[in-house]
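To assess whether ligand presence alters the predicted conformation, the chain was also submitted together with dinuclear copper ion. Input:
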Amino acid sequence: MTTKTSMHIDPYERTWMIVSVVLLLVFLTAVSVAGFAMGIQLPNPERRVDPQTVATDPDSPWYKDNVGLRELAPGKYEAYILAQAWQFTPNEITVPAGSRITFYVTSRDLQHGFKLENTNVNMMIIPGQVSKLSVTLDTPGEYNFICHEYCGTGHAIMFGKVIVTP
Ligand code: CUA
């Protein structure tokens, strides 16, 4: 004598199981397309620094004349930017169109923000951490960057710009 066991799944439940699997696949596809096809990245906590010395240590990339733009190869730049209440240093950089810039931004005092208009560059700037993000600027023009984390009375005047020349 044999006993036959079968698992009964209600059609309603089965439908929702299928829907949830399909949804997971849709989300996975959306994340993959955004990350790999469209190049959308998340800000990368690059490394830690000491906010007390980040602007006073002569070896620091954020010390006085060390900050700013460096050309690594034709059309390939890195920009070290220091945020502090209430300014960015430098607050203006110029690159030719088609350049790829990697930003390394840190703060020596408060929490700030760094958002470069019309791009995916949008980072929180936290004392002690270096925020890193890259962007390729193909269209000539002026791209303002602003502090978009409220940081006190001077918050509204904390901005700068990237000039992209033809
Ligand atoms: Cu710095 Cu708002």
